[in-house]
Every structure is written in C-alpha cells, then in structure tokens.
Amino acid sequence: MRYRLGVDVGGTFTDVLLLEETTGSTFRAKTASTPADQSVGVLNGIAKVCDQAGIEPSEIGQVLHGTTVATNAILQGRGARVGLVTTDGFRQVLQIARSFVPGGLAGWIIWPKPEPLAALENTVEVVGRLAADGSEITPLDEAQAREQLRSLAGAGIEALTISLINAYASDVHEKQVAAWAEDELPGIPISISSQVLPEMREYERTLTTVANSYVQPEVSRYVRNLDRSLQEKGITAPLSILRSDGGLVQSAKAAESPVSLLLSGPAGGVTGAVWFAEQAGYSDFLTFDMGGTSTDVALVLNGEPRIGRETKVGDLAVRATSVDVRTVGAGGGSIAHVPELTKALRVGPQSAGADPGPAAYGNGGTDPTVTDANVVLGYLPTALAGGEVALDADASRTAVATIADAIGLGSAEEAASGIVDIVNENMFGALRLVSVQQGYDPRDFALVSFGGAGPLHANALGRLTGAWPVIVPPSPGVLCAYGDATTCVRDESARTMIRAFSATDDAEIHTALTELAASAAERLSAEGVPSEQQTAKYQVDLRYQGQGFEIPVDLDAAALESGDLLSTLGTAFDAEHQRLFSFLLKNEREVINLRVTVSGPRPDVAFQALDTGSEDPSAALVSTNDVWMDGAYAKAGIYDRAKLLAGNVVTGPAVITEMDSTTLVLSGHSATVHPSACLLITPLANTSIQEN
C-alpha cells in the first residue's frame, strides 16, 4: 500500500487527510490550528489520522502541504527586515509605486498608505546600467557597490533583494552584485529579480522580489522545523509544498521562492474541487470555500481553474502566478457588530479565530459570530470536528441576543437570521467578482462548496447566484488537504520579449517557447519526474500597442506546432478582449511576455464509488430538530452523511452532518447523493427560485 498525506493549515483548523492510492480509501482528522507554531497542529493531526488508519507514520510515502505561513507573515507584518539594492537613481521605486489609490472619489484623503516591505533607509543604489535589450551602458562600480552593501550589513538586515533596471533582459549585473553580497553579507538570504520575476516593469518586479525576501526567513524556518519534526516522528517521506497555482514543489525549492506560496492554502481547495467535480460530471463551476476566518472563491472553466498573474494578500499585490482566488473576510468566526454611529448590522471582517473562537466554543469568546448564529438557528450539531469541539448553545444565544438588543429585534432568532443573510451577501459579492465581473454568467456554472462552514451556506449561495447544482464533496471540511494529496509537481519559466506582430514571426515565438519549456522540464527532471511523463502549457501576454496592460492568452501544444502561431494568438486575444471589455481596437497587437508551465502526472488515485440505494434516505435519519427558516420554526430531518447511499434524495429542510462539516438543505430544495459521494443540491421542480 502507498499512502499520501495531505495537510492544510487554516486560520482556525488544521486539516489532515491520509489517502491510500490503490483503493482510494481515506482517513481524515481535524485539529485546532496552532498559530504560534503551525507545525504543532500539523503533527497533532498526523498522529490522529495515523491512529485512525492503524498505520505507523513511517508508512507514509509522501507529505503534501498547503500552508499559510507566507500569507500570515504578510498579513501580520512579521516578515524579515529587508535590504534592497537598486540601480543608481531608482532608490524610491517602492515609494513611488504606481500612484494608485484604492477606493472611491477622494479616497486618498483617508487612505493610509501601507509602508513598503523594504524601508527607504535600507535601500541603496549601485552604479551600473543595462539597456532594455540587455546590453551594458554603464559597467558596475565594484568598490561603490561593496561600500553600499557594507552599509546594509550595519543596518541589521535579515534578507536582501537585488533588483536592477532592465534585469529581465540580462541577469549579468544582478548576479555580479549577488556574488559581492555573499562576501559582504555572509549568511543573509539573497533574492534577485531576474530569477524571481524575469519580466518587464521595474516596480512590479522589485515589489515581488522584495516580498520574496520578506517571507523567506519565516518560510525557511517553518519548512526546516517541519522537516525535522517529521523525521523525528519516523516520517522519512519527502515534503512537498503546494504553490499558489495549484502545483507542488519540493520543500527546499519552496523555501527559496516563497512568494509563489502566498495562496498555497486556497489553491488546494480549488484543486480538490476539480477532482470531485470531475467525478460528479461537471467541468464548469464556481468554488466556494468558507472556513473559520475567511471565504475564498474561484472559477473553473473546462476543468481548469482560471490562473491569474497577480496575487493579492491584504494591501500587497505581487506578480506571481496563482489560481484566480478572491478572498473576503467572511467565515464561521466572523464577528457581528452594530456600530454606534450607523446602528446598522455588520458582519466581519474581524474574526474570533481559533482562540478564543466563537462564544459556542466555550473558550472565553463572547462576541456573536456567524457560527453562533447558525447554532441559534438550529443548523449545527452539538459538537464539531468529530467531537473535538463541543458547542455551547446557551452561550451562542446570549451572544446573539446582544445584536437583537442593539438593533431592536424581538428575538435572537431574528438577529441570527440577519447575521446569516448579511454574511451570505458578502460572499455573494465575492462570487460576482470571479464570474460577472469577468464576463461569465454564474447561472451557466455549478457551485462547489467546501470548507468547514461552506456547506452550511452553500444552498443559500446557490439561490443568490442561480448556480445549480450546488455540489458538496465528501469530507468538505478537509477538501483543501484532499487537493494537496491529488495534485502534481509543477515548474514555470518566463521571459519578456516585446515584439509587435509585424516585427516577429512564428519561428521566433516557437523557438522562445520551446527554450522556456526545456528549462522548466530540466528542473522538473531534477526532481525525479521522467520527461515522458511531463506536459507543458504555454501562455503569451498580449496587448494592443499603446495599452498599459496585457491579457494572458493560453496556447496548447497542438497550436504551438501548427505553424500558424501569431494568427492563433491574435484571434484568441481578440476574443478575450471582447469578453472582458466588449470592444476591440484597430491598433497592432504586441507580444509582451512568454510563459511555460511544465507539470508532472497527476497521481493515479483509485475512485471509490458509493454503494447504491433507493431514493429513500430514512436509513440515515438520526433525529429531527427545530430549525429557524423563512421566519419561523420548522421540523428538519438530521441525517448522518456516512449512512447515505448513492441515489438517496434528502428533501429540505434538512441538516446532513459529518465529522468535518455540516450541510444545510433549505426548504424547497433537495440533495441527491451522487455515486461519487457528492451531494447535488437543486431546487425542487415545483419551487420558484429567484435568480439574481
């Protein structure tokens, strides 16, 4: 037997899933996250899941991990003290930025500009200059450069970024400065922009490389500690980390380029959703991942998650390939409050987190949260995470009652219903960002819901979006860990090559893409992936001449070899531009960046079909409970998901419970059990559902 271990660390819970590849059998565990040292929660989960499976940790063949260490370092401002080396005259590159202020009219009046990750006092300039074609205009001044590096040594920096003008065209100067830095700053990790992001635009390239330096020491420490702890537990299996684009990378390489891990956690959920949606027969869907602290949403088209070139974490937006995930501060732990000024109910983005957590957890929390509202409404069982977290219904009612008093509602149930409605609208807004705002009608998609809290709200989000069916995979609370365990290793190469269509030809584009593919393939081969098992995906960033932005266009292997590259790219670019902006320009098209991603094979995991039963789900009925729905109490059946069979149909109102999550089926809807063990929630045939 061969076991793969998927681990996902969230803000509230750490999810662990053990997968036996031959049979597809799974074992899962959910433990409280340990923010002070995430590896503690990871090891607790591993011990628990191995005990369930009756195996020794040494039998695990691979450890695959989605982590929020890099994300948290950014959000909590506890990254490294970064020194920055720029070309003479470019010292304020991070301060000038793009002169962009978020928000509405006059937002600049109240917007607190975030401090750059590399302070100006820790930024130095070196004499030396390259042209845009990579040729040398001014040679480097070694004495001056070493003097500047020594000044950074005295400033106590913990990481160094080297980002020189036009380094995307030639890395010669950056590598030379890096060699001098190794002499002057021994032991300091160095990131150079020509390796982290070899693309044009000085600000984005510098910011992305500085972000890499900022989180590198923290990620390196975490990876080393986890590696050592796994070894101590007898787990000698290699540790791989999930990248933001949904691929895996060896832990040592992840520590060198941690900026590619900023959306590691959310990417695992999307990857897991793709696997289960395929089993249920759906290739176009929205994903909805609601945890304890936040909700992540994404769009999948033709079985492929949409990949973006910008990764946003808090106020930071870096140029790194990632699944196009949008995040809102809406989770089970989101706190409901009534500001004194407006007297209007608000939910989030503040969260009770894992400690103290919602009032229902009994850990000292008193603020009313979304979880407390669901307890008051009768939607949650008496315990979560397989009995690990007992719920105190009285504490939830007391907390939610403060909201009812603050806004003059007659009951805690009405206040709880308002809390749930508002958080649903917040998440609906996020789903519109990845669908309507991108030119897609959500009614053309299914909705895959997961995360510990997602299935509780999924049916309501289906009503708001009109996306049917709502698909709830098995073990939705640990789906991110499932995604970690069922994805593949991946590597990427990129290059800036600014060419008008009239100034290039198919042969030049073909040669450049082929070289990039060979470079990424070579690195993947070094990780033990045979060349015959590798597949390449090609992407070209295009724009109309004069535009200030590019649009990525995907290219498959057949198109690459067709001999008609520019025509194919131009047609695809026009179609995408029309979809996004509803117009085309007559300006000549222009190639800006080339990018190739090479992936290894997806693991051959066996599919376990659920046993078949009739439509009658009564064998799984555990009890009935009063739930508050549509402004009144109603009787709801409480079902044990583990006892449901393929073909069973659960009609709402109903609550379906399992170890790691709870699914709510609203009145006027039913959940059909698919052979893949997914729940497919749809409106009843005679029910009129409003679609927004």
TrEMBL record:
The lineage of its organism: Bacteria, Bacillati, Actinomycetota, Actinomycetes, Mycobacteriales. Residues 4-184 form the Hydantoinase/oxoprolinase N-terminal domain. One of its GO terms (molecular function) is 5-oxoprolinase (ATP-hydrolyzing) activity. This is 5-oxoprolinase. InterPro entries: ACX-like_C (IPR049517), ATPase_NBD (IPR043129), Hydant_A_N (IPR008040), Hydantoinase_A (IPR002821), Oxoprolinase-like (IPR045079). It comes from the Bacteria. Residues 507-670 form the Acetophenone carboxylase-like C-terminal domain. Residues 205-490 form the Hydantoinase A/oxoprolinase domain. GO terms for cellular component: cytosol. Pfam families: Hydant_A_C (PF19278), Hydant_A_N (PF05378), Hydantoinase_A (PF01968). It comes from Rhodococcoides trifolii. GO terms for biological process: glutathione metabolic process.
